[in-house]
Amino acid sequence: MAKITASVYTSHVPAIGAALDQGKDQEPYWQPLFKGYKFSQQWLKDNTPDVIFLVYNDHATAFSLDMIPTFAIGTAAEYAPADEGWGPRPVPTVIGHPELAAHIAHSVIQDDFDLTIVNKMAVDHGLTVPLSLMCGQPDAWPCPVIPFAVNVVQYPVPSGRRCFMLGQAIRKAVESYDQPLKVQIWGTGGMSHQLQGPRAGLINKAWDNAFLDRLIADPEGLSQVPHIDYVREAGSEGIELVMWLIARGAMADVNPGAAPGAAGGPAPKVAHRFYHVPASNTAVGHLILENT
């Protein structure tokens, strides 16, 4: 039986990838941010999974306004880095896990979640920046990755509650796979930021840290927060944080199919927590939770 061993949460700011790619990570502006991921890089080496299920949002590279899937799972054997207007990032090709991805798609769709199955796509900074933050600059990523794209760009977007329940269905799917794989689930995007309009540059440290507190200790309650609260408190792009609820819903202390608040397994261990501002006018949050 496969199992989810941990969940990882991190922002995916494109400027972080550019700083790494251009060798700026030791500059005074960027050094404090990358220092916050030193523990995480060693942690991943010590806890390398067999597969990473990576929840992210596409930024009009694989998908456009012509086609906007709410949830899309990658089932390909590999995914090339996308050209986002200045050429693809100089990072390794992402190797997929088609067998587990297909199994998860089948299970989750049978549990009444509609997924779009994607057999060919490029992956942008939403996926590659988290890998770079956690892995550094390797010649190859340490394990296969299943991309899971969520629409948080074009309204209507999925609710936090829907994402939390989807995480439970993903955990059920993983645990029904007949190979003894160690799987990590990563939730990416956020934290507070707004890229346009009169509130461009908005950062709400208090709200961000309260979100992290509740993500750890009260994910069920956090899943009930309406999307308008994210927009008001964390900016128009703060809605990306609902993707973190997919990863949190897949953890062992959440009881799939039970009544709200029903106890599941033991609470996860907080292996690492980090928060930093600014990073290109964006708040960066990071958390690692281990199933115990």
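(the above was protein one; protein two follows)
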Amino acid sequence: MTANPLLAVPVVANDQIRVEERLRSAVVTDDPYLTEIAAHLITAGGKRSRPLFCLAGAGADLPDGTPASDTALDGGVAVELVHLGSLYHDDVMDEADTRRQVESVNARWGNLKAILAGDFLLARASEIASAISTEVAGLLAHTITRLCEGQVTELQSLHDVDRTEDQYERSIAGKTAALFAASARIGGLIGELDSDRIDRLTQFGHDYGMAFQIVDDILDLTASEELLGKPTGKDLVEGVYTLPVLYTLETRAGDDLRDLLGGELDAPALDKALSVVRSGPGLEAALALAKAYVLSAEESLDQVGDNQLITGLRGAALYLISSAEEAMRG
């Protein structure tokens, strides 16, 4: 796959290194054991899209090549720590063995330590946000609430072949889009943009997040385990029926797929379910909705700015679609 265009902006590569350094520093405690657990997924790497969105928003009015401010870096670290904390908790709920091609925290240290370490990361994020401003702290706290709401909405629909598109969208709006929206908004607040442009950045983050999750769900059904860093079809196995699956259930192939779903899937049943989804129109229909969200995200940026960072955000949104199309081509 091609590289995310936001990373092609020269100053972003250096700022990303600075984010990594601050992430590692943020989880250092007096207890080396807790530090090791809290830093586990940080050292495993990641795309750091959320902190980069924060940096881009904060730099919307700055000349090209201007390094991110310390405050912008702190905002980026805060949103990434929220993301990481949520992953620790997700892996406990999913009983995941791996994350980002390394052993998951719960698999290595157990569920209790994983939950506590996830709580620690969320607490550190809140602490860092409160040092930026009360508005940023309140926004991040509200976002954590949205993450929980979105996850609970998803859990209520596990193994439900009658899950609706509305239920799916409400879930991903909370568990995924809310943090992307907050990341961009925090950047705008730190950059002291006017309220209209901050709202446009927030809408961009929301629409990007919706497209991001739809594309992620497409990749879960089409991409290789090597590319995903997790088993293909993991959501199907866990009973999370995502948009491509829901669309497929509404087609002629829906009856065949419905007979396979609704409970546990063994390996042969998973392979058959994946085959049904891949051969039907559900993937293309889901991709069409992702494209609509990307178009809306692009339009939101029209009045925000036109420096390299904003152009990079626009390219990042388009990259989502190209990555899904590439995976679907197989």
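Reviewer note on protein two: Residues 164 and 246 are 7 Å apart (CA to CA).
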